[in-house]
UniProtKB/TrEMBL annotation:
It comes from the Eukaryota. This is Dynein intermediate chain 1, axonemal. Keywords: Cell projection, Cytoplasm, Cytoskeleton, Dynein, Microtubule, Motor protein, Repeat, WD repeat. Belongs to the dynein intermediate chain family. WD repeats lie at residues 250-283. It comes from Willisornis vidua (Xingu scale-backed antbird). It is found in: Cytoplasm, Cytoskeleton, Cilium axoneme.
Amino acid sequence: MKQGHGMVLLYSLKNPSFPEYVFSSNSGVMCLDFNSEHPHLVAVGFYDGNVATYNLRKATSQPTHKSSGGSGKHAEPVWQLQANKLFDAKEIKEKCKTEGCYQGQNKDQMSQDSLNSLTVAFTAMKHKIGGFEKILVIIALVKEFVLLPVCLVKWQKDDMDNNSNFFSVSSDGRIVSWTIVKNELVHMDVIKLSVEGTMQGPEGLQLQSLGSGTSFDFHKKIDYLFLVGTEEGKIYKCSKNYSSQFLDVFEAHHMAVDTISWNPYHLQVFISCSSDWTVKIWDHTIKTPMFVYDLSCAVGDVAWSPYSSTVFAAVTTDGKAHVFDLNINKYEPLCSQLVVTRKKNKTTHIQFNPIYPIIIVGDERGLITSLKLSPNLRKMPKEKKGQEVKKGPEVEMAKLEKLLSLVREPESKAEE
């Protein structure tokens, strides 16, 4: 798919007709995220696999930092097998000098820096032939690089050296950490979404299969814990401390996981949505979902509300926004409203305002719709005479836990 130029537009609700900031780019913009500790910093992911940061305090339309082909950019090589040959050690060295071989590693283990400067790659195995040690070399040419869009970027807390850092995910199966060190954007692969089994390449060459990341979210309290959703419908529970293995795998959906989000109040609960028409609420210690909602249409996005542990909203590709409150109705949405009226247009994203009772909905044509939640959709506990209504995170957590205990109860009885 050919991509043209992209733009980042930042608006104020006081003036929705014209943006406060305008940033142009040579590639389409796929995602962005504001830094909660430094709100003037914005991380952006592009269609061509690059990431960049913008500083709103600087009077420039150019990014302050940007990745490049040799610095961790999300891309996937398309391999073309050339030949199987036998060489001795001297011939190997000469060939590497002339053809730029990358010796000693399987191509699936090569770093991104190596891949971008690579012309020839090979796997080598020692064989003894007629008393002489020979090396069997499988030469594979990088035919081309497929640009992979950055699906999501998210800021994390500043590191121990007070450097700002964010993470990105793409369908190349890499979760990449990006740290701003002085005037440089330093990257590090946190984990690769390898899946079970291998796929067969040309000439019977066995290639390691990688999962295609589509979404991820970091735990609100446990810094090292995060979840990753994939195109295959799986959700991986991962840790920053273990780059080679997963803590757990959820067989979550039948199609791509479009969004994952931890609950802002309950430490064990997260929500996911998919193109398989469903929204699911999970306890990360249990392999089966607590609640499942079929919205009869592909779900593009889902978001928890910032003011209640039991309220969430979702958008579907039929142009509707759905608002749920589990504390009022565990089975159906309180409201389903048509946001997009044009044909051949789909709603793709939804977000709550962190302070005001407002949600914004984005669609496929680039339009943003701002909606105010009616009082019925943001009911607060009624005050009783002589009694003070309890509020705060502990109350919200207890409210959701009470609902989850009702779901868990039949299972515990069956075990008994």
